[in-house]
Amino acid sequence: MKPRSIVFDLFGDYLRYAGGEVRLQALTELLDCFGVGESTVRVVMARLRKEGWFDTRREGRETVYALNDRSWQLLDEGRSRIFDRAREPWNGVWHMVIYTVPESGRAVRDQIRKELAWLGFGPLAASTWLSPHDRLTQVQEWFADEPSVRLDFLQCRSTGLPVDREMATRCWDLDALNRDYRELMRSHQRRMPAYRAGRLAARDAVVERTRLIYDYRKFPFRDPDLPLELLPAGWVGRQAHDLFLEAHELLRLPAEGFVSDVVGRPVERQAADVRELRGRWAADASGRRHRGPWLVTADDEPAG
Prior knowledge:
With 304 residues, the protein is of the alpha+beta class. The protein is built from 13 helices and 7 strands. The chain has helices at 3-13, 24-32, 38-50, 69-83, 106-118, 136-142, 161-171, 174-189, 192-197, 202-216, 237-250, 252-263, 269-273, and strands at residues 21-23, 54-59, 62-67, 94-100, 122-125, 128-131, 150-156.
């Protein structure tokens, strides 16, 4: 795990519920649990502040790093995509995005593909992506300020469920994804007895819980959260998600207790959960929206 990733996980799981801010000294103590030294913490936080993810202020000789509107909104979006799963029956409607980008816009084209994958779309054909979930508005909002991108949106039905299932196998490699879910379950199931018995020290619970998030959050890029009607036989993705939720909750109290002791204030989830959001996507002063830390894959995560 890279220091940059750990910082956002700590804010996403704990510090957002403890006022959304932290003294640099306390953050350094938390990152020490992961073997990250003080000098590295200073460099990483200075870089993240420069990129616009955090505001800072001074309290005596201490620097305090605080979430701003941009990072609050992105943490909310990432948390929803990782923790929430659709359970309602599917109405049989596919939601289609067809995009057109000039040949010179390779970077924009790559960005579109990553965003569509994050939102649960899969490539049916070149420049044509499908999802069983209606997230067309989110796609439109995200690329509203990209003049080089043309987006066409369609809603459609196939001739029947067998065709729907065949289309799903064309859009996503469900067999490979299922194998990786099984491996995730094998890796974490053996830890569950210790979690259930409460045998982990509080400091270790923070590390284990952060590792759990790190291991699991790559799956929303690959898993479109298909409705039951489209899932192949022997699918374990929902079991893996339930295991993730159980492990995450079992480690919550000792981990939150440790973080509370370090930062000197309680981790109060309810207070932050009712925070009023001022928009689903974040934007900077120019109005342009950006990919956030939760939208970074294991392969393209910037170095800390």
